[in-house]
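Q: Structure tokens for this one, please.
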Amino acid sequence: MALQHPMNDPMQDVQRPAEALQADSEHARTEITALQTQPSQLLFWRAFYVLVGSALGLALGAVFSVLAQELRAWDLTTVLAVSSLPGLLLAGAGWVYAGLRFAHYRGELHRGEGVLLLDGVWWRSETWLPMARLQHLDVHQGPLDRHWAMATLTLHTAGTHDHQLRLRGLPLAQAHALRSALMPRATLTHD
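A: Here is the predicted structure, written as tokens:
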């Protein structure tokens, strides 16, 4: 008699309770809306990571040039040319990293359930925020956000671990619409 793996059992759904099947069908009907990230967010991340990479690379290059001058290994022109190389390499790495982060950054609104945020290049995170944990929501715009008509929607939650979730690079209108959709509605009943 051959043993069959439960995942391959064609009778598995027949043997499951009716409540579980109903819950699965309700979950399948959940409307999922992808949250649009502005291309300007890519420009912002590229500028940031290129500046950080350039600064670190130039600092490394400065240390290298001081050491080379102390050892009197090369003339000044060669030292300056070689010491600028780490800055160029790290600026290029920042450019590529920003593109990868933008490609992997994604938010989803699961209507009536919550928000999912996918982020990260090397260490990827998937953060699920159920609507029941929402406390309040903020729409934030910095000077560059205003220039590019972007906003960051911050979702504050109950609890201490991961108490806020930031959805960056949203179009301003979408950030306000999402805030309105996620805000809990108080229902008043009169007797």
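A few notes: Residues 1-25 have pLDDT under 50 and may be disordered. Strands lie at 32-35, 106-110, 114-119, 125-130, 134-140, 150-157, 164-171.
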